[in-house]
Amino acid sequence: MSPNSLISTLSRLSSKEPQKTAYIYLDENGQEKEKISYRELYMRVSNAADQLEQNGYSSSTAILLYPQGIEFIVAFLACLKVGVIAIPVPALDASIKERILIRITNIVKDADAKLILTTPSICRTLSSGVSGLERQVSWFSISDEVQSDGYRGYSVEDNRAIAYLQYTSGSTCLPKGVVIEHEILLKHLEAIRCSCAYDSDSITVSWMPHFHDYGLVEGLLLPLFNGTLCVFMAPSTFIKRPSLWFTTISHYKATHSHAPSFAHELCINKLRDTELHDINLSSWRVAALGAEPIKPNVLVDFYSTFSRYGFSETALTPAYGLAENTLVATIKKPFSKPKTLRVDLEALKSNIVELALNETLSVAKEIVSCGGPIKNTSVLIVDPNTAKRCEELFVGEVWLSSEGVARGYWKNVDATNETFKASLATPRDDNRNFLRTGDLGFMYQGELYITGRLKDLIIIDGVNYWPQDIEWAVENSHSEVKRGGGCVAFTALIHGKEFYCFQ
């Protein structure tokens, strides 16, 4: 019988494997700070759910303001158990505290949240001192001292109920809350499990933040759904000491560990042999790269740099996804080598994909395959102007139909209709609603290649330019230009004519 929520899965694991370790949280030195078994986790979640219900917070909407750690996991699962719609937000990093508070304030207003769940120390510090929030929300800290013999008040009966809101970054506009239902989450976790070769022996290592869909869904929730160990640390721990990522994988013999592409590039540039003494990466079966454009040279350099430590080239797993689809849309098949495609750059500027058969790099661009669609997912390439389906080897907007597609944006009908309810101009060919991703790409031999972002595309005199291509060319044109974010390309209107510029 399929579970109707993650709480059903946790309850089963608590009964069948009560002493098995569910999560291990590492401190900034890579040492075990806290570990918790399935039984202990279930009891702590039950205690937390009791407190939420007894204080009248069931069926409310709550901001989860926690640092990385098991305390967040307990609070998140307690919300699922008692019917609170959870909203994970960034932890309060001292260096960007004001920016985070502005983001939280915007989310509180958009979600009409009445509750902030957080740690006792954060509650004492902020509950009476955040401008604009004093009278809007209640602040609450879950106590581990409250004991319960197992919460029995609320259980998810309707798997179409909302589990949580995944807020988008809001980098170019106010953040929008993606509505994730219990059923959507469970079906998507099952699709990821099948597509990424998870089994009963899998072990996950993660440092990705819990407020991001990548860190939450695949980093923390997939191991629980799969009933296998998750070892995790704070993102700041990885940034300060990238070598801890590898030493942790080696120590726990992890099989799955995923990250944005920048992390792999950071390790290539920063890690030295002296930091990786006696490590063994041969257990690492799936190292997914996602969440941002993947550079072909990163795949080559990462394997060539770390193969001496047992890392397999087939472990590198480019993927494509977005929060609006819960997480993953396409991914490379397990145990196969990643693919790239060299295409004619001039033809690409006209949205035509022509395979580059010669080795003249000045006229060719190499693009990484993000693999094929995961289970129960359809990917279409569509002309964003005409809504007509593109043929293979033509660039268009990526449209998705999937069991992972979210219900829409929280209380935002216009944005939901625009993004989640797209239809083809010729519905007789396919009358489904599709998710418009806003990303540009093409299909080749059943696999997706991403070329850029629709809103980022620079069009000059009818010719397409991708800002990341311009930035890459500038960064590699002179040794004085910092690589990996040393410049930014944009358009500017000069004497009534649009030009692209860089800074």
Q: Can you walk through the features of this model?
A:
The chain has 503 residues and is of the alpha/beta class. 30% of the residues lie in helices and 24% in strands. It has helices spanning 6-16, 38-54, 70-82, 97-111, 120-126, 182-195, 213-226, 235-240, 243-252, 261-270, 296-306, 345-348, 413-420, 467-475; strands at 21-26, 32-37, 61-65, 85-88, 115-118, 138-140, 162-167, 177-181, 204-206, 230-232, 259-260, 287-290, 316-321, 328-331, 340-344, 364-368, 372-373, 377-382, 396-402, 435-444, 447-453, 458-460, 463-465, 489-494, 497-502. The strands form eight sheets. It has a five-stranded mixed sheet with strand order 11-12-13-14-17, with helices on both faces. A four-stranded mixed sheet has the order 2-1-10-9, sandwiched between helices. Helix 10 crosses helix 11. It is globular and about 70 Å long. The model is unreliable at 459-466 and 493-502 (pLDDT under 50).
Shape: globular
Query: What characterizes the major β-sheet?
Result: 5 strands, mixed
Give the strand order of the largest sheet, numbering strands 1, 2, ... along the chain. 11-12-13-14-17
Q: What structural class results from the helix and strand content?
A: alpha/beta
Cα distance, first to last residue?
Answer: 57 Å
Number of strands: 25
Mean pLDDT: 86
Number of helices: 14
Helix content: 25-40%
- Give the amount of beta strand, in percent: 15-25%
Uncertain parts? 459-466, 493-502
Taking Cα atoms only, what radius of gyration do you get, to the nearest Å? 23 Å
